[in-house]
Here is the input.
Amino acid sequence: MSFAKINGLKLSYLIYGTGFPVIFIHGYGAKKEIWRTQVVDISKKFKTITFDLRGTGESDRPNIPYTMNMLAEDVKGLMDFIGVEKAHLIGRSFGGMIAQHFVLKYPDKVDKLILIATNFGRTDTDWVEIPKIGRLEEIETIKSNPQKAFKQKSRWVFHVKFRKEMEANPSKKFFNIFSMEDLIRESTINPSRSQDVINQAEAMKTHYTLERLHGIKNKTLLIAASHDRQTPVSVMTEMRKRIPNSELKVINEAGHFMTLSRASEVNEIILNFLNN
Here is the structure.
């Protein structure tokens, strides 16, 4: 475990493998550990860097409203601290929003861009309330019943087939990396606090890139899931139309967390794109 001292705070990060750097940005209220299923394959070919955003995991949690610019600057600070001039950038969901802001601000710092299950935001901020309320409820439930919290969240983030497979055998290891029991246990370690989730939600309110997506000139891969209830395929199809040098892949029979449930397929798509 390493810490980068940047922008007046400490960010927790991990580096695996060697080669050209790939930086992963996790989703809303998640932690760097969510990328475990990607790191295993991608670190064989690349130097993979995962980190906890401010307000999550082992990073500092300043109690101020965050902005997308602030979070993009944290990525820049991390790169400077580690000594990375240029990297492939992979962001999922909320992390994909941050990645959009980063690449629009620092296009020369990014070689290839991968956006997974993410969106371009809206001009009004009402859309932020649903994920925020969901996360706040989850935080409270984790305190008393982590298993119940996980099962409630599962309905939103996994395809029904995968969910049933996990629930039928909670100790079954998927991809020899995680089981349902592991994910439940993980949710209780360094969990987000209510205030952290509220501060990150403030950043989402500053996210609207639709009219700026044409400015992303980097080679871009969009990965969507067929049954994603939070970022439907239609949203990512619109993004593909707007980002000039982009392609879209859709993972079938998968939900918002397809990076976990369909890890092998997702990793193969990522590696093909990065190696091409």
